[in-house]
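Researcher: Please translate sequence to structure tokens.
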Amino acid sequence: MQLQNFKQEVSRALSEFAWRQWSQMGVLSSFDQTEKTPIDPEALLLFSLEIGRDNPRLHEEVSDWFVANRRIVSLQRLRNLSMNKEDRALVNALLGWASEFGPRRTGQQLLPIETEDLSESLDPFFRDSSLTVNNPDPSYLAADFLKERTQPSGKSESPNLLAPINFAFRLRAILGNSVRSELVRVLCARQNKSMSVRDLSEATAYSKRNVQESISELLAARVILEGSSSGAARYELPSWRWSPLLFSGADIELVEYKPWPNYLFACRTLNRWLWEASESDGSQYLLSSSAALLVEDLWPYFAGRSEITRPGRAGDADFSESFEMFVRDALSVLS
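Model: Translation complete:
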């Protein structure tokens, strides 16, 4: 398995996906493309923090966007979506850095800090960078990353609420940055298909208790309908109830529902594995065994996608080829 070239191929594909999304959400970018599928903002932000480690400009511009638009981002969802210590480190670094630039502090001159030589003890935040870090950012240091201290570029704009990709932000403008707006977003995207509390909790990244409380409010307001299947309550949002309000004046067409938290968690996990595996000195057999375990971990996150082919066993002669096919198939669900 020639991981170096394959790693670069996957990294480019993931970076291009991130740029396409952010270019329609207010980030300065040369990409000019209209996505018809609404994105999950917090899932994309967390994904981009990981992919940005391979693309410094992406990281800096997404960080700038967060400073400009943090009022419409759900920090609770961002934390809830952080599935492991790597995710939490990325989020903590961003939140700490962004706290330097509140409304009364934007443009404040940054002061250098005294540090020892940390180059041997900490990982560079940007994986392929050979640049010397002269003034480490304290928020990134606290997350065990070595990164130059920077200021926001100030180039980002607010999302266009009428753009299809920004449907979540349009809902937040109507319903507030709340569990209710996420429930409506998911149920709208499901297009008259009912969901259980458990399904809605997973899709919205809120606890079952919070979801149930908000469902009760939406039921009382007669926004959603309640049914049952096999004795379990299920909920749906009929299109005739929400279409006149939510889509009036907006070029929004809800197409295929995508469980973005699942897909983007799997992709950032894949990206980390490729970078770590490419630095490993292990044998081909150990590499294939590790790749097979990765497939087992990621397979549930692509449930129901018939176009994704599951690789054979690690010891099979064609395992490397089938693993690469699995990865390319998995990336195709993003488009």
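Researcher: Any highlights?
Model: The first helix runs from residue 3 to 22.
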